[in-house]
Amino acid sequence: MNSALSKVFQRTATFSRIAAALAVLLAVITAFFDFEIPLTLQVVIAIIALAIGIPHGAIDHLITIPRDSNRRFILFILVYTLIAIIAGLAIARWNLVGFQLVVLMSALHFGFGDSAFFNESKGAAGTQKISFPTLAAYALPAGFLPVVLPLTDQRTSRVLTKLNPAILNWSGSLTQEIRNLTFVAALFSILILLITKNLALAIDLSLLAALSTLAPPLIAFSVYFGCWHAIRHTARLVPKLPRAMEKVSLGEVTSAIVAAVKPGLYAIVGIFLLGLAIIFKGTGDLTSEFLWSILVIIWALTVPHMATTSRFDLAAFKSSPRP
Predict the structure, then answer these.
(1) Is the pLDDT of residue 279 over 60?
(2) Which pTM value belongs to this model?
(3) Residue 244 to residues 5, 51, 59, Cα–Cα distance (Å)
(4) Residue-range domain boundaries for the chain
């Protein structure tokens, strides 16, 4: 057991739950007073939340390539960048199909990543890890809730129209069916988690369902990405980064988290500059075009990022006890 490392996981889990709860509370308060958050303000909030989440995926090279192998490091960067460029061009060229693939890919990545977070948290605390069936039952709704529900919300049409009309009917005639299936899967999983006495997992699914249903769709996904998925992934990076583990050895929990964030801060500036360059032509709404550009870049980077982190996710699942 590593008490400081365990606290890193606990603190990030608490942060993500508070962020989701505050977003839900904001949604409830605005609904009570019949006040609609202006779309432009939603876009600004989304950009801020997305910026918070960007660094977590910008240090894949540090956790994948041996420090003493310059050749492998350069090769990794080239392949990683090439995959991201191809994915970005594909999404930009084939908006609808690219978006549909991104939705599926992101949901799986989010769900299995969050599941791995729990097992790695258990490992740090020195407690028994969650069984494979329970973890699998949590993974699918944990990933699809924050992706599918905001995208199938009736309020999303305004946002998608503003961002890119080409993806407005991404789910075709199956919108309600997809939405209902996600709700049923989440409810079924929550019941399983309660029966198996995995209260924390059940609370998390309930929070994700509330966030994805009540909050404005754009805010719901952005808060999830930046303040839930990204911050939890950052905790998972701490054991893989020597400088962060130095802070852990000193019992400095907050400093350890900061040490895992710092190497990826450059990506915020880089992605924002690239987004501005893409919309430099000066047509349309600057704010919405900027957000769309940022989203496309993030989606493109998600492809190699998911491939890089998948082996860590699978390792967490393999370490789960089987029935």
Answers:
(1) no
(2) 0.84
(3) 10, 21, 13
(4) 3-318
